[in-house]
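[stage:ingest] chain + small molecule (iron/sulfur cluster)
[stage:ingest] validated
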Amino acid sequence: MSPDGQPETGKKRKSIKEISPIDVYKLLPRTNCAECGEANCMAFATRLVNGELLLVDCPPLHTDEYRASREKLERLLAPPVRTVTIGTGERAINIGGKYVLQRHDFTYHNPTPIAIDVHDLMPEAELLERVRQIEQFAYNYIGRTLTLNAIAVRSVSGDPTKFGNAVRTITGASHHPLILCALDPEVMAAGLAEAKERRPLIYAATETNWMAMADLALSHKAPLAIFAPNDLALLRSLVKTLLACGVQDLVLDPGTFADEGFPDTIANFTAIRASACKQFDELFGFPLLGVPLTVWTGTELSEDVLTWREAITASMLISRYADLLIMHSLDGWVLLPQLIWRFNIYTDPRKPVTVEAGVRTFGRPDAKSPVLMTTNYALTYFTVESDIKVANLDCYLIVVDTGGLSVESAVAGRNFTAEGIAAALKSNNAAGLVTHTTLVIPGLAARLSGETEEATGWRILVGPKDSSGIPQFLRERWPPET
Ligand code: SF4
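[stage:predict] done
[stage:export] tokens:
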């Protein structure tokens, strides 16, 4: 902190939006070797500043010859919110790494991991069953498998032996990254002793225990969360102190408060993130930890209300600006909205979610089965797929590459055309799949039917506007009258 107590900021640095591809290009090898998969270094530079590629994608840059340039690029492109890694191996999670406050300014990276709590007073069988549920929780959403990401082990007993035992049980049953939650350094030390090489997040350093927790973080090379409930000045002071102690991987918890305290929660999260991303405040440039679990302290309410409140709190914290969440509920109706909301917030808004173009086979189609067509926008495709599967239809579905646009948008934008349909029939060898020449196009592409018949020589049937109508449509219209 500066002598006048104001935030220390890095105003000289540029925001990611102010960095031009030319700034980056000048520091690249400029050999146009194409090892990165791009046609040349300028194309790579453009995608780099768009957040679509990483420095690691340019292999020559990581040779000794270009070390100085690489280090300059790393400084130039470093996000104002640092990236902190929790865990090791394939399931390690990166949190933070944010460049901007608002998602529309630049794609968010590192989707908010969700950790579920367990505690050290649970009987071993119950503990293992909860870990199993966390491990197995998965939901398929438009072709992506959405899962939980970490386990938070809480010391409820305050007993180092019990905490160590619980951590040992969990490390033996799961490879998920761990968050060890204990404010007593002696208890924390017992947990860390059972999680060697797992790089757990230590939760948490406070005003009173920070020195011992800093020693534990350094000796175990583990990231450290700082807990300073509703006190940003204290949080800032602890960050500065811990950085001076040599602890670099910090996570900030300004407190998650239920009920009347929730506006403070959102205000604190927003103030910290705005300070980091807009003023380049280095002391607040760390990932934020939200703890919707705290709603469960409101014991005067029914369990249903508390569960609902946890769901609401988690959703709002994913939006404002939690980089990691600790939750309690394992109910699908609580977690699914979080996983889907997270997926949508962390999807590049400039790029529609797509599926691969090509032909799909449903059931056991034969040479007389219907041939349907749709676009490669993931939401459209999986809706159509679901409707076909639920009805147990035997058919072919040709998926046309429309750049990830839905049928209506693709028709309007000329991404779904008679010529494109003709090319898709040919490239997918539709004539070799069936002996008829009748194609069912989506109802929203009805206006293409005439020109498509001319372009393809196939007879076109205009299907329903909503794919839920496909089963009835085929019952009534297939096989087509000759
Ligand atoms: S790999 Fe590096 S040097 Fe080669 S073209 Fe790509 S950016 Fe340029």
